Amino acid sequence: MRSSSSVSLAGGRGSASVRLISPPACPFAARVDAAVEYLMVKKDFQAALDTCEKGLESLGPSAEQEENCFKYAELKAALTIVGIQALAELNQWRGVLSWVLQQYGETEKIPAKIIQMCILLYVKVGERAVMKDAVCDWLHCFGNMSQSGFSTVAELYFLHILVPMGHMTEALEMLESDVGRVAFSDEQRQAARSLVDIQNEKNAASSNSNPESVEGVATTSASKKDRSTQRLTSIMRLLYRGLSVASVRIRSISLRRVFLALMLLYLLLVRMDPALPSAFPWLLRLHGLLQQTWNTMFGPYYRASNRS
Hints:
Radius of gyration: 41 Å
Shape: elongated
Strand content: under 5%
Structural class: mainly alpha
Helix content: over 70%
Distance between the termini: 144 Å
Order of helices and strands: EEHHHHHHHHHHHH
């Protein structure tokens, strides 16, 4: 019995057999599959990262000559992308750019899709400045302008790095440079200029509104302080009048009431800041309490002196 992997071909005077063998699986592709399984299925992010690093280490110049394997650049990019995702899941995003540079050596050699991924990652964590210089160098590399993702990298750089960081002059210079002319059409460049103008107007309006708001707050605080000072002055006048009227009979007043009056005076002059908003309810309450105390302590004497 013939093997199932062979086929007989009869023709002419003789016969021959041809063995059809399926191409062997690429070991580097298997590493990519394993890394993806660790990352997406098993959620073992450290194992996914280790698998990517081992695969990248095992990649060599010979991989470019293998006819049955993925292209070297595509395979390396796939392992790098999975590695970036694993680093992000491990909360090691700060080392993503340096890790990518270890794999490619220079910023200009990083593929466009990996640069895009790095931009989005650092923008998400609020660290745009980390990618600014790296992306600028990548965009000004003449060899990268022919990549299919060049326009996307330039757009991300303009919208998510330059404009949010306030580098409006640099953004306009980029639109007029070779990078802008290659990455954007005339309509896109015009829309980008309009976006910069709008952002400049917002910044100008914000800077102009801040002094006015500060002046308004200062005026309000001053008016509140004046009102509280007037109220405190009226209270002190009332207290002075009561003490003046009762100066003749002050010896007959109990020490307890004198202590109470002194405590009220201490709270008003020392312990309470009339400029504070929280002081107004207390001032009103103390005003009523002081007036009630004055009526009880000095009211009869004050009325008697008026009759006389």
